[in-house]
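Hi everyone,

Forwarding the result from last night's run.
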Amino acid sequence: MFLLRPEEIDELRDDLATQSGFRIASIDVDFDAFDFARTGESLVDRAVAYSMPNGDRLVGIGTAWSASGTGERRFADIGEGLAAMGRPDLKAFFGFSFLPEGASSDVWDGYPSADVFLPRIGIEQSGDGTRLTVMIPETDHIGPTLDLLGSIRHPERIQVMDLGDHSIESHPPVSEWAASVADALVEIRKGDLDKVVLARSVVVRSTEPVAILRVFRELVRQYPQCYNFAWKSGDAVFMGASPELFAEVDGSRFHSNPLAGSAPRGEGEDEDRIIAQTLMTIAKEREEHALVVDDLTKRLAPFVAELTVPRTPSLKQMATVQHLSTEIDGVLATGVGILDVIQATHPTPAVGGVERDAAVRYIKDHEVIDRGWYTGGIGWINGAGDGAICIGLRCGLIRENTTHVFAGAGIVAGSEPKAELDETRLKLRPLMDLLTAN
């Protein structure tokens, strides 16, 4: 059964036929955005599915327009590309890597330093309904895109899926990663760093190709309070359930939700409550969180007219881990947009460290994995300076039968290698549990 009726395709065709230049047509639809993504993504080489904690969903397949950037000017290049495109009202999907020079290994082929695109077919789903939009470049005929749209069917419902058998490798081996934590603590005691975030990865190889959209729908179902994303580029998908909002801009209004300081969830309500209360009082965890909030506040100062920062953190609880959390709100100065905020604050101490330049140098010199878009950002932006970007956390890069899953921990004075290793194991679980569900 096709997702769209012939008369809906005809309505889009009639609207597009009356336009010239870059053509756009929209209709209301009555199906789930992720049902569209489950069958539509296989027909194109670029697609994104994205959900937010408020329940809104965004989906895009195909490319109507794109731009990329690299190096220290990458965000400025993206902004200039959006301005030249000339449609500040349109939402474009946006993602970027941890380092400005981008990834250094072929694991991340298809994921440049910074990437932005308008989809050929986009769906925006909210409490007000679901709207499908078709975008056709000036040089293209409308027929192929509408034929693609008309070919998309309701996805098959598979009750039981064989995920195959799995082999699992830790990169680096856990003993080496624990030793790297001990080495970082030596540098912290010297006073060269206050904090550095160290990352590791687990590579899962399966006998069956990963069921991409099945895994994604389970992430959305199990972690509805997160920013869930799946970004397809060629034969790879970058997927995750991030608990951390990097930046959200709506007009002049700004919001961010940095997380730092972590503890496991308890087995029952009583244990969970005790762990949460303890997390709120541990000096080491509070210090780690304060480093993040203080640095972010300082870097935001030149870009805001107002900024509200709570004096004490609250608690944000996920299924496997809970974090100290601060909700930062503000009003941006005139002319400041989300790319300006990202340029000034990325990477935050939540994913890099303090002092920032020294921490990034330490990561470059000592970390053995290629982070790529892990601890970068992913979400949407527009040419007006609005957007919502989460940090690429609780995530993995899937390519056919192989998945690289990433996690990290913030190392500060008082950190213990075994405890930090256990923290990364908790952060690996959202994807690991689904990939190895057999």
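The two ends are 31 Å apart (CA to CA).

Cheers,
N.
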